[in-house]
Write a structure and sequence with these properties.
Elements (H helix, E strand, L loop, with lengths): L3 E4 L2 E4 L4 E7 L8 E7 L6 E6 L6 E3 L7 E6 L4 E6 L8 E8 L12 E2 L3 E6 L1
Length: 123
């Protein structure tokens, strides 16, 4: 089992950058595939990015490709989401998720979730 805590959200102007971090508890973090999802009011939770347990496979939603970068540090039990060139439509609560059954782009594939961190991009 793993517990996840996100940080790094905030208010930023369009075109700016933020770096989200997700800290995981437990000694088996390196065995988990990790994902970032987001949800804005009135919308379903959507996939943003994912990274395999080894860091060798990366996946991005088309809407963030080229602007966001996911990375992980298994020695520090952390996964990060670097967000550049932010747009107002990136405004959402961002969630970190983990699972051991394979990296994926569907929220239902992930068993463990953080509490979320708010990202607001002003125009």
């Amino acid at each position: 089992q793993v517990q996840l805590v996100e940080s790094g959200g905030g208010l930023v102007q369009a075109g700016g950058s933020l770096r989200l971090s997700c800290a995981a508890s437990g000694r088996t973090f390196s065995r988990y595939d990790m994902g970032w999802f987001r949800q804005s009011p009135g919308k379903e939770r959507e996939f943003v990015a994912a990274i395999s347990w080894s860091g060798g496979s990366l996946y991005y939603a088309d809407s963030v490709k080229g602007r966001f970068t996911i990375s992980r540090d298994n020695a520090k039990n952390t996964v990060a989401l670097q967000m550049n060139s932010l747009k107002p439509e990136d405004t959402a609560v961002y969630y970190c998720a983990a699972d051991r059954l394979g990296v994926g782009v569907r929220s239902g594939q992930y068993a463990y979730w953080g509490q979320g961190t708010q990202v607001t991009v002003s125009s």
